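Example (one chain per record):
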Amino acid sequence: MRLASYNVENLFNRAKAMNLEGWAEGRPVLERFARLNQLLGEPIYTDQDKAQMVKLLTELGLSKSDQGPFVILRQNRGSLVKRPKAGGLEIVANGRTEWVGSLELIDAPVDLEAMRNTARVMIDLQADVLAVVEAESRPALRDFNTEIIGALGGPLFRHVMLIDGNDTRGIDVGLMTAEGYPIGQLRSHVDDTAANGELIFSRDCAQFQIPLPSGKQLIVLVNHLKSKGFGSLAASAKKRLAQAERIKLIYQALVAQGEIYIAVVGDFNDTPDSAPLEPLLKGTDLKDAFVHPAFDDGGYPGTFDTCKAANKIDYLLLSPALFATVTAGGVWRKGMWPGSKPKRWEVYPQLDKKENAGSDHAAVWVDLDL
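Predicted structure:
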């Protein structure tokens, strides 16, 4: 059987602020959005809170209207803000209970050819079990399977599952499996909390049980750890460390229950030598598929962007018993922009400009003799 993981970077729609030319352009918007959402959730708005809200609303382009270039403010009942005719912005609510509404990122459609290239990768992987990172929702994943993969003549995945995680941007983790690989028990870890009560996972550590045709059982933990590009580097590293420590405990609990075929997969947003990933890579017996003798990295050590060693952030970590069943493995880059001087790897003919890339991530896969 073939196990794979792929960060699709959304299927149909993606937040406009996340779909700009470079991360540096969208980062300020996302940081202001997150901070403003945090303030809006406070039970009581102090004068200091209100002043900061006005500043953030203005910076997000909401001083004159509830819709800015990247963000929309929905005031369904009651009012958060007043915009006097003389100009300016005033916070009129004194706390979260005085108005009903939300602050939302505005989505934009994913480029059509990029969408097709994402599907081409998913088809050509020929995965029996495919972990998907950064998908909008289960309906989006289901429709992408039937409408886009199906339209390109690819075999449809028989089972599609995704549960909303903790991220409001529609970048959740899910699983797609082929005929003969039903999804059994599913457990979400969205509510796992640290000692201080803070949620551990930025999205989820989705736990899937897959009964195999051989009668054996595979457990897949699909993850998307905290990114480096949002918030301070120290804070994001601390968050990834907490997430890795929690995944370690989940893995060890599964081993204690007698599970032997376990895969921890997804986009970990850090390199194998990083401190935040030490709990997984040094603190457990999990093995990175990349180090298996049968694994071919295609001449590039990374999985993201230029695929240099510093861009090795996508993983298939396997329990010892599962690692022992690996017969082949590799990195599928045909849907990634290869650069132009020179092109680094072979791509689909339809990928003739950067915006047509299926993703900035490669897909990673292993064949398992199970």
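Caption: The chain has a mean pLDDT of 92.
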